[in-house]
Amino acid sequence: MSLAVASACAAFMPAHAQEAAPVPDAATATDPASAQAQEATTPSSPAGVQTVLVTGLRASLESSMNLKRNATGFVDGIVAEDIGKFPDTNLAESLQRISGVSIDRSIGEGSKVTVRGVGPDLNLVLLNGRQMPTSNLGDRPGRAYDFANIASEAVSQLQVYKSARAETPTGGMGATINVLTARPLSRPGMQASVGVKGVYDKSAENLPNDVQRGDKITPEISGIYSNTSADGRFGIALSASYQERNLGFNQAAVSNGWKGPFRGDENNWGTIPQPGTPGSENITNRPDPTDVYQVPQNLNYNMNGIQRQRTNGQLVFQFAPVKEITTTLDYTYSENKIQTRRNDISAWFNFGPSTSSWTDGPVAAPLVYTEIINPAVSDIAMGAADFATRTQNKSLGFNAAWRVNSDIRLELDAHSSTAESTPDSPFGSSNTLGTASFSRGNTSVDFSKDFPVLSIQGADFARAPQQVTGSVFENGYVKSEIKQLQTHASWKMLEASELKFGLATTDVENRSAFSIQQRDTWGGATVPSDYPASVFHQESLRQYFDNIDGSDNPALFNTFYTFDFDQVRQLAAKASGRPELYLPKTTWNTDQRTREKSKSLYLQFNTDWNTALPIHTSFGVRYEKTDVTSTALVPIATSITWVSQNEFPVTFGEPNFTTLTGKYHHVLPNFDADIDLRSDMKGRFSYGESIGRPRYDQLTGGQVLNNLARVNGGTGTQGNPGLLPVKSKNIDLAYEWYYGKSSFVSLGHFRKSLENYAGQSKLVAQPFNLRTPVGGAYWNAALANGCAGADTTCIRNYIFRNFNGQPGVVRGTDDPAGNATGVITGQGNDPIANFEINTYANQKAARLRGLEFNLQHMFGNSGFGFSSNYTYVKSSLKYDNASIGEQFALPGLSNSANFVGIYENDKWSVRAAYNWRDEFLSGTFDGAGPNPTYVEAFGQFDLSVGFNVNRNLTVQFEGINLTDEIKRIHGRSERQLLLVEQSGPRYMLSARYKF
């Protein structure tokens, strides 16, 4: 059977009692692309049958169950409780309640989804059956859709297609997620509701004054209106919402990753001293020669205050000139504006003499790492940021559905949609203004608890007041545009068969550009006297991490200073005499543009078999052809300069465009079958092939070098527009028992065989023939006169004191320790610098398998019930933490579980939800190189309590993350912290009036 009430009617009418409304014929409701037309042309109830509208939590769960039960293939979903009332305030939070679906959180709410271990970039999101563009300045080159952009009030249903379908657009290798919104002709007459909400986010309180933003309580307002003409030929629907939220989060992070990995017997720059060398006696439980270990590059504490405003709206016109034809014109708009302020304190390691203690191998991690700094003249870095971004989504679409006769149905659907992310601040889309007190002595970090404890000796802010050092001002721009034309046809044949076919053309253009204004004067750009002491405000650090184990350690360096970003920025601009350096550039450093033009056609045949055990089957095939063109504006590097002990900024000249192309085509077959083992039992089988397209950064041509190189060389990126999509061969099996009107149990098994995975890899190149001072004539002269090869301070002192004024050598003033400062530029006879270039290739294959268990039970008419699920996912392709070098593994692979308990009567509705996700690999590069990043297991408890004052007015309390969980990410070892984050719970009180 098709999706019956759920997909044909319920996209706007959340639920019909199944005993009151017989299931319509199998038509095209299971096709996401034609869902909106189907709901417009299917009567709200068959002639002569009274429709009983059921709303509420139980009805939502029942409708979701029937969506699953009546679907062809493997489909799950969530249906709204009533008009304008989706179960969760965030769509991603709703999606995580579905078995096999896990979410990534950003600023305390769900943003992106992983399905059955397949990451966000390889899942396709549709809006009313149309492929949606996405843009995100936090992930410029990605394809992952950010559900934080969509308010839930106008959404009436989410459908998650887990098995491959010929009629489903390609790109959803993990799943295709269809978001359905209101269509007026689906629900004749006037329907309307309005809601108001007050939001209190506790995380916004636990912040320094310099980053706190806005009021403690913020408003939300939403409304939906739908009406049809008396003759049912014309309909209009309007939905709108506006939401404000003030929040905060505090992080302790090794933000630049961990240097290494090294073997215990290696003696490279940045490693711990080898046995028999000076300092080796200060190492406790030294890593064995075969152990893998790493050392931290820095430690950063940052406090972030955020304001968010989200605006959503949709306008829909429908016109049915005759009974058989329905046309729909719709416009959807969303805007998500985020303003961020940050203050931080950090210490950077220079890998000089050190003491340390270690865990046991084979992956050893430091419990305590201390760098010896004498005299105390290194920097205690304290920075600030103030930036803002805006993301706008616009979609204009037209649909025409014609039921030619009782057997033939035709449909045309077209849309033009854009997603655009831009800076929303004169200071750019991201920035950092660094200050420092040059009074840091011995510096230690204790990693033995969840919270890393930084200890600093010798700090003296009176002796060494703060001054502005380096700065970074970045502007980013992302725009994605999709123009899509789809045609669909269905022909009922014989008594129980149907032939479906269709054509589509999709044109996707993606542009990602950014500029960077960076001043690499981290050793001091100005002098302390340029800044009145009053602009720096003393703060205590510990209070901002009081929920994380280890933050009460008395050894914590607890005093730091915050400041107002713009106030100090203006002072620095004035003191430097170069105000343009303290604002973003107005031109782009890089500009990457990718265009994908796809054509597709599909054929699908559905038929029922009237055997002893009734069987419904679906055979289909889809052909997809895509051409890729990638054009990139590449900065042309001209030189390398040596500005401090381990900082070698790359200088760039005028950029140039380069263009590369690629193409591919696929034939994707599928087969679905479900068998009625009994009237209340069903078995399912599905085989299908699907593809997931590469990320845009994987496709974009052009070699882009990172701005900052090191002693051992630089890094960069390079895409490959010839990449093929990841292809997956999928097998699904399931048993389902619907033992009650609202109760069922199901057990599913799935397998995916993946090929053409584009794993990250590195190649060593010498782009632009850049010369580095490392190993050059000046460098070698310093070595010949007594400097050790790893002692860059000695080498710089020798060069400045002996070659100042020679080509490429410009000496500055000495620092407080008496060491020379200045710039050394690579010369024509110096060695050519090596760069490690991250690139991509189709060279990986993987297999994953898993189990899904669902149990939903309602306790008769008591009002109590629950819905629960557990997903187990496994792959033999795991990251080997004890192995050095580039590896391929599947990010996002994790077990997950959900439990939702409800109580409901005519006055009260209560829903308690717990979501848990096990630890998972989130990436294979940590900012320093090919190292794993693991997000630790996370569980969140949410609660909502509603009270029906009367049939029209409802008030509701909601609590999100009530147990105030923390987020923690680590590297190869749990003690190898990358990030730990404290935020806070969120409380909401709302009222909704239904007309």
Automatic annotation (TrEMBL):
One of its GO terms (cellular component) is cell outer membrane. Residues 39-48 have a biased composition (Polar residues). Pfam families: Plug (PF07715), TonB_dep_Rec_b-barrel (PF00593). Residues 68-174 form the TonB-dependent receptor plug domain. SUPFAM superfamilies: Porins. InterPro entries: Beta-barrel_TonB, Beta-barrel_TonB_sf, Plug_dom, Plug_dom_sf, TonB_rcpt_bac. Residues 436-962 form the TonB-dependent receptor-like beta-barrel domain. Its main location: membrane. It is found in: Cell outer membrane. Gene3D superfamilies: TonB-dependent receptor, beta-barrel domain (2.40.170.20), TonB-dependent receptor, plug domain (2.170.130.10). PANTHER family: PLUG DOMAIN-CONTAINING PROTEIN, TONB-DEPENDENT RECEPTOR-LIKE BETA-BARREL DOMAIN-CONTAINING PROTEIN. Keywords: Cell outer membrane, Membrane, Receptor, Signal, TonB box. It comes from Telluria aromaticivorans. Belongs to the TonB-dependent receptor family. Residues 1-17 form the signal peptide. Residues 23-38 have a biased composition (Low complexity). Residues 23-48 are annotated as: Disordered. This is TonB-dependent receptor.
